[in-house]
């Protein structure tokens, strides 16, 4: 029998406890007489779940692999990540999603749940085999063409009806392509000053409103990826008040950074959707605090140096984010917002697990798999550009952020111990 005892932890509700783990399962939470690892000063939370990760494999292994991506996830306290479908080949068949599922299982660092594409080849013209991917070994429940918008309303309606058959969800990348062709950054005075084509807020907000109405009409589930504008927040708030089954995410970079970073023309700040204004960022923060935004999704999007270390116009869109999301949320939610670690756990663990249908994630309780992140809330650190990802397109480099992940356990096994990734095989 394998046993781990985490002594003197603080739970999310502020209660002190010892956690006993046997054969990967939490066997007791309370007071233990067994010897174990002293975790004084550390907060024990359910392992984090990211509903929006790009692992790049198969097809783009120069940027990331499932193994390197899950190592980065473990370093950030994650025990489950949902892998977006924009691989090569696209994750639009049972064979591809099962391949990704198996790669995640083999990595050992976190659960990898594939996201299937909504349309074949992400082309936006014909639905993928959504039902077949759900019935596969990977049991896909979330579908997205992230990176491109499902802009055809009829096709989006058909997709919502298809996932309704098994309680799945469509995760929409809200971006009207007719309004963003060639866009490079947020539309406004700064884009004019910098000579970069603007990306208007209405391109996001109009799609969210349309899809919310489609979700209402079909009675299906809709998830909005990476909200970025104050107007988008208002649309989601309106839809929720209307009773529509809609959830939404914000990324760490849209909470922490603004379009002002683009003044440097450093492509590390080039992202889709773009960094917006300070007012937009503040609206996102308020929406996190009031519950309009349900989860933090990293949109971890690694790229090779060749794709990012070049002139702005030719650079790829995307940033890495798995290793610093918890620190950004601690800054926004705890340090500035004065909210609780229980709310933190909802945003990072329980709610994303529920949205994704991951039954063995997002909860720290007796009888459940020991998927746990232990956070030192009192540390502060200057963020390095280097991460455990294969890519270094890290927009948080140089910032001083609170908190650090000390230990991560996935199914009772330390994937990160004393801040160091473990050798699992």
Explain what you see.
By secondary structure, the protein is of the alpha/beta class. The protein has a single domain, classed as TIM Barrel. The protein is built from twelve helices and 19 strands. The protein has helices spanning 66-75, 94-107, 130-135, 153-164, 189-194, 202-218, 230-241, 252-256, 278-290, 305-308, 325-336, 341-356; strands at 3-11, 16-22, 25-30, 37-38, 43-46, 48-53, 78-83, 111-114, 142-143, 169-172, 185-186, 198-199, 221-224, 246-250, 295-296, 372-382, 400-410, 413-417, 420-421. The strands form four sheets. Strands 1, 2, 3, 4, 5, 16, 17, 18 and 19 form a nine-stranded mixed beta sheet that branches. It has a five-stranded parallel beta sheet with strand order 9-10-13-14-15. Strands 6-7-8 form a three-stranded parallel beta sheet. Helix 4 (153-164) packs across helix 6, helix 6 packs parallel to helix 7 (230-241) and helix 11 (325-336) packs across helix 12. It is globular, with a radius of gyration of 20 Å. The mean pLDDT is 97.
């Amino acid at each position: 029998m394998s046993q781990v005892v985490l002594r003197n932890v603080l739970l999310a509700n502020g209660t002190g406890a010892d956690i006993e783990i046997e054969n990967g399962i939490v066997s007791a939470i309370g007071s233990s007489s067994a010897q174990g690892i002293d975790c004084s000063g550390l907060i024990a939370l359910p392992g984090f779940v990211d509903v929006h990760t790009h692992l790049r494999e198969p097809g783009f292994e120069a940027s990331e692999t499932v193994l390197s991506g899950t190592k980065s996830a473990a370093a950030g306290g994650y025990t489950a990540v949902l892998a977006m479908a924009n691989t090569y080949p696209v994750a639009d068949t049972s064979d591809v999603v099962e391949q990704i599922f198996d790669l995640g299982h083999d990595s050992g660092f976190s659960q990898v749940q594939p996201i299937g594409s909504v349309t074949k080849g992400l082309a936006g013209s014909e639905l993928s085999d959504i039902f077949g991917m759900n019935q596969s070994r990977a049991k896909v429940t979330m579908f997205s063409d992230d990176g491109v918008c499902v802009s055809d309303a009829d096709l989006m309606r058909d997709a919502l009806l298809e996932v309704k058959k098994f309680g799945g969800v469509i995760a929409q990348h809200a971006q009207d392509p007719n309004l963003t062709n060639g866009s490079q950054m947020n539309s406004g005075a700064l884009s004019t000053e910098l000579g970069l084509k603007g990306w208007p807020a209405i391109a996001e907000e109009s799609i969210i409103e349309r899809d919310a109405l489609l979700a209402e009409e079909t009675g299906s589930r809709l998830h909005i990826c990476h909200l970025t504008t104050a107007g988008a927040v208002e649309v989601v708030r309106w839809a929720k008040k209307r009773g529509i089954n809609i959830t939404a995410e914000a990324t760490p970079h849209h909470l922490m950074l603004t379009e002002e970073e683009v003044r440097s023309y450093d492509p590390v700040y080039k992202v889709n959707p773009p960094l917006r204004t300070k007012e937009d960022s503040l609206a996102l923060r308020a929406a996190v605090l009031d519950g309009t935004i349900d989860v933090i999704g990293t949109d971890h999007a690694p790229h090779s140096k060749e794709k990012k270390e070049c002139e702005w116009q030719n650079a790829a869109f995307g940033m890495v984010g798995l290793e610093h999301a918890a620190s950004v949320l601690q800054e926004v939610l705890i340090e500035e917002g004065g909210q609780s670690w229980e709310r933190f756990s909802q945003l990072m663990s329980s709610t994303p697990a529920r949205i994704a249908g991951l039954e063995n994630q997002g909860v720290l309780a007796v009888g459940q798999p020991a998927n746990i992140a232990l956070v030192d809330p009192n540390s502060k650190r200057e963020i390095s550009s280097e991460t455990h990802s294969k890519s270094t397109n890290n927009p948080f480099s140089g910032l001083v952020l609170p908190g650090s992940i000390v230990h991560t356990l996935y199914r009772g096994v330390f994937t990160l111990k004393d801040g160091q990734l473990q050798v699992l095989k």
